[in-house]
Amino acid sequence: MKEVEKKFLNTDPEKLTKKLQNLGAEKTFEGLVETIYFDYPDNRFQKQDQVLRARLMGNEKVEVVFKCNKRIQDGCKIYDEKEIFLTPNDWDNITDLLQSIGFVQTMYFQKHRTQFKLPNAKVEIDIYPEMDPFTEIEAIDTQTIEQ
């Protein structure tokens, strides 16, 4: 699967939420997100601009994603990605599994996320401790993001 994304820094979550609701966007998630990035001990993923990430989305789901072949087009990041979804009960099991087969945790953080779905795009408003909020738009291509 191909992922196309663009991030916008210093967004106003309240204003953006109102605009999205006026466009008919459906709120699909709001809550705490825990994220752990993994790599081999020699950091080969980081050196090759690849990502292996496990993410716990509140009490709703666990996502495990591998991203590779990063490129930039029209100001958007494009990755090839493999993604699996698990239940929240799998969080400890999947992180233990990744570490037991040789991956090491390279980063951990928490954030508050509000996620919206539009017909051809997903919009995520992220709030981290001690950072200004930012927004990410994901769509099938760069033209959709610009719209």
Which properties best describe this structure?
single chain, alpha+beta, 4 helices, globular, 147 residues, eight-stranded antiparallel β-barrel
Question: What profile does the largest beta sheet have?
Answer: 8 strands, antiparallel, barrel
Number of discrete helical segments = 4
Elements, N to C (H/E): EHEHEEEHEEEH
Q: What spatial form do the alpha-carbon principal axes imply?
A: globular
Strand content: over 45%
Can you walk me through this structure?
This protein is an alpha+beta fold and 147 residues long. 20% of the residues lie in helices and 55% in strands. The chain has helices spanning 13-22, 44-47, 91-100, 142-146; strands at residues 2-9, 26-39, 51-57, 61-73, 76-86, 104-118, 121-127, 134-139. It has an eight-stranded antiparallel barrel with strand order 1-5-4-3-2-6-7-8. A hairpin with a 3-residue loop joins strand 3 (51-57) and strand 4. The longest helix has 10 residues, at 13-22. The relative contact order is 0.28.
In short:
The chain has helices spanning 13-22, 44-47, 91-100, 142-146, and strands at 2-9, 26-39, 51-57, 61-73, 76-86, 104-118, 121-127, 134-139.
Question: Layout of SSEs?
Answer:
Elements: E1 2-9, H1 13-22, E2 26-39, H2 44-47, E3 51-57, E4 61-73, E5 76-86, H3 91-100, E6 104-118, E7 121-127, E8 134-139, H4 142-146
